[in-house]
Amino acid sequence: MPPHHTEGQAAPRAATRVVVMGVSGSGKSTIGALVADAMDIPFLDGDSLHPMANIHKMAAGTPLNDEDRWPWLEIVGNELADTTASGIVIACSALKRSYRDVIRGKAPDTIFLHLDGSLEVLSSRLEGRSGHFMPPALLESQLATLEPLGKDERGVVIDVAAGINDLLAEAVAGIQRVAGQ
């Protein structure tokens, strides 16, 4: 009897799992959605995965601490690991190495796409957004918290100062290179 193969058998190994990371204003949701579309895989905004306790805390104007983030980061990692699609792109700030380690603990083959930019570029992008408010001090705080990808982390760093078409092309090419595609 000939061997029988199903799509499901190869999907976990071949799946391209991407976290689009960066500070507020870097374009995680916009670039993430465009990258997912270009790669024909689903996109998910990591903010939609927050536990209700985090949502209530943020709605009350209380910043999240690391203890609040751990369960959320595990959920992000589980979404990456459990995808049945040929891949998935999730927007998640993942500013610290320890945050990325939690995600990698669930989905070790995750590729991190770091949207990098100067304070000036990020500030101007935030000023152009409607429905969002990020005081300059908070952006500066996020930049101070940001731990760049280590040489041992699977990732791609792109400068958000480039135009959207260049950003998208560079992001997809970088992800494919890291994924070995």
Strand order of the largest sheet: 2-3-1-4-5
Please give the largest β-sheet: 5 strands, parallel
Would you tell me the overall average pLDDT?
87
- Mass-distribution shape: globular
Number of helices: 8
Total strand segments: 5
The parts where pLDDT drops under 50 for at least 5 residues are 1-13
Radius of gyration: 17 Å
Q: H/E order of the elements?
A: HEHEHHEHEHHEH
Helix content: 40-55%
From the helix content, strand content and strand pairing, which structural class follows? Answer: alpha/beta
Distance between the termini: 32 Å
As a percent range, the share of strand residues is 5-15%
Features:
five-stranded parallel sheet; alpha/beta; 5 strands; disordered N terminus; 181 residues; 8 helices
Describe the structure.
This protein is α/β, with parallel strands linked by helices. A five-stranded parallel sheet has the order 2-3-1-4-5. It contains eight helices and five strands; from the N terminus they run H-E-H-E-H-H-E-H-E-H-H-E-H. Helices cover 50% and strands 14% of the residues. Helix 2 crosses helix 8 and helix 4 runs parallel beside helix 5. It is globular.
Topology readout:
Layout: H1 7-14, E1 16-21, H2 28-39, E2 43-45, H3 52-59, H4 66-82, E3 87-91, H5 97-106, E4 111-116, H6 119-127, H7 136-145, E5 155-159, H8 164-179
Parallel strand pairs: 1-3, 1-4, 2-3, 4-5
Can I get a quick summary?
The protein is α/β, with parallel strands linked by helices and 181 residues long. It has helices spanning 7-14, 28-39, 52-59, 66-82, 97-106, 119-127, 136-145, 164-179; strands spanning 16-21, 43-45, 87-91, 111-116, 155-159.
